[in-house]
Amino acid sequence: MDIEWKGKQITSYLNTKWLGRSLLYMEQLDSTNIQAKKLGEEKAIQGTVVVTERQTAGKGRRGRNWISPEGNCYFSMLLRPDILPEKASMITLVAALAVCKAIEEITQLEVRIKWPNDVVCNGKKLCGILTESSTDELHLTYVVVGIGVNVNQKEFAPEISHMASSLALLKGEDVNQARLLGSIMNWFEVYYEHFLDTEDMSLLLQEYNMLLINCGKDVRMID
Ligand code: BTN
Fold it and tell me: Measured from the CA of 57, which atom of ligand 1 is nearest?
């Protein structure tokens, strides 16, 4: 399948006004977050999305690597919100909500959010989200939300196999990556606009809490 066609396939699942309308698709990248941040510095438009099939230097939270074999979804969204920098971390929660809704829509699997932003099913992690931002004095110049979803991966390293799974393993069949990507972006654009209306989670809190596994339980903060 040629590269341009795959990019177009993703676009065909989009109902968005602005998100993903500028879409960069590459078969392999170091990290979609690294590339989206470069585009952020280069003044690329808000809503630009970078997608790849595999990453050679995928980044996880707390400086960890995100092992990124072919078959999954790896993408980063470039945003330019006009909000205070300390509010940017809430966009990660918005993304977790969008990923849950999209997975439920495409696979009918019952997924949950493990606070603050891991998406899990049967106690196993299906998705990681890494939000990075850049500020210029007091203002945000851009925010990059990077999302990795374990879609069609069948094997996990022994040290993580007890805590990670994929949609294909849970569903018993492969899942269309382009369709899932389109759906995540569709949900994200709607929720993100609600977030911008109030600059907090108030309009989304009910839906977020309904999906939260550890709602009302004590959680240990690591960072
Ligand atoms: C976590 O540690 O849970 C966050 C993992 C985030 C991984 C995604 S994959 C797409 C994007 N590009 C990266 O390098 N990281 C994020």
Answer: 14
